[in-house]
Amino acid sequence: MFPHRAIVTGVAYVTAYDLAIRSVQDFETSWQPYVLARTMRAKYTSKPYVYLFNRVPPYYPEQRNYTEAADPTTLGAYHTLEQFYLYNNLRQWPRPYTAVDLRLADIGSTYLVNFATSGDPNQPVTTTDAGNVVPQWPAFAPTGGQLMLLGDVIAPAAPPNQAALDLFAGSPLDWVSIAPAGDFNHADPSRKGSYRVAPADAQDLISYADLAIALVDEVDHPEHHREAIGVVA
Fold first, then answer.
1. Is residue 4 helix, strand or coil?
2. pLDDT tens digits, 93-130
3. pLDDT score of 27 more than 80
4. Do 163 and 64 belong together in one domain?
5. Between the ranges 78-82, 154-158, 187-191, where is the mean pLDDT highest?
6. Which of 3, 20, 48, 187 could bridge to 40 as Cys pair (CB 3.0-4.6 Å)?
7. 153 shares its domain with 183
8. Which domain-ending residue is among 121, 146, 169?
9. Residue 231 burial by CB count (10 A; 0-12/13-18/19+): exposed, middle or buried?
10. Are residues 82 and 104 in the same domain?
11. Cα separation of 73 and 75, whole Å?
């Protein structure tokens, strides 16, 4: 992705595997949320909060993950796993849970409800009904910002791949991240033929076809540079 710079720095990516796999992972799953958080902090008064969910779930001996791996824990904390914890729905997904999982689900779901209630995951509830104290989650800061680890440990921490984020931030590459301002219109996926750039709003919808038009238009006629934008039909 940035081969000559990556090799020269020797910090973010050292091996060919790092360049081929980890650089893509960092760009897709870390850099884009990082940019979104920076954009929100710069343009809006509400504060963004960033987390890294890294709890590897327990498995019964006969259980497999969707890759059918002999050792399912090799998949790690895979995509969407945190939903069972943040919604406190572990009972819907039987596993040999430990006290670590129960505490994570209790505190994680409290963060979610707090944020939905006040825009701040730290309030109003500071101690859960189960008696768990809710650790303070710092708001994201563009420089030296911390995220919240949600896993075996629940605590603020620096991004584990900060070197990669710094590499992307210092690159002269022109890029843009385009996503729905709210969500895709699953009920009516038909093409409307128009769209507009809009701030984040969960009520705003756009079809897959209209988002595709926005992507192609930005490629053909670039109007946004090194930023994340939302679009709505």
1. helix
2. 888 999 999 999 999 999 999 999 999 999 999 999 99
3. no
4. yes
5. 154-158
6. 48
7. no
8. 169
9. buried
10. yes
11. 5
Structure tokens at 88: 């406190």
Contacts of residue 89, defined as CB under 8 A and 6 or more positions apart, other chains included, come to 83, 105
What is the count of structural domains for the chain? 2
Burial grade of 47 (CB within 10 A; 0-12, 13-18, 19 or more):
middle
Task: Pull the structure tokens for residue 83.
Answer: 């939903």
For residue 190, the enclosing domain spans 176-232
Q: Are residues 165 and 195 located together in one domain of the fold?
A: no
Asked whether the beta carbons of 231 and 197 are under 8 A apart, the reply is yes
Q: CA 223, CA 204: separation in Å to the nearest integer?
A: 22
Report phi then psi at 228, rounded to 5: -105, 130
Question: 4 pLDDT exceeds 60?
Answer: no
To the question of pTM greater than 0.90 for the whole model, the response is no
**Which pLDDT score is estimated for 117?**
95
The pair of three-digit structure tokens given for residue 202, joined into one six-digit string: 């969960």
Distance, first Cα to last Cα, the chain: 32
Name the nearest CA neighbour of 75 among 90, 84, 65, 83. Answer: 65
Give dist(CA 181, CA 202) in Å, integer: 7
- Reduced to 3 states (helix: H, G, I; strand: E, B; else coil), residue 151 is coil
How high is the pLDDT of residue 138?
Answer: 95
Residue linked to tokens 């992507």: 215
Is 192 in the same domain as 161? no
Identity (one letter) of the amino acid at 124?
Answer: P
Average pLDDT over residues 126-143: 93
* Last residue of one domain, picked from the residues 129, 151, 169: 169
Task: Report in angstroms the alpha-carbon separations of 71 from 22, 59, 64, 74.
Answer: 22, 9, 7, 6
Q: Please check whether residues 36 and 141 belong to one and the same domain.
A: yes
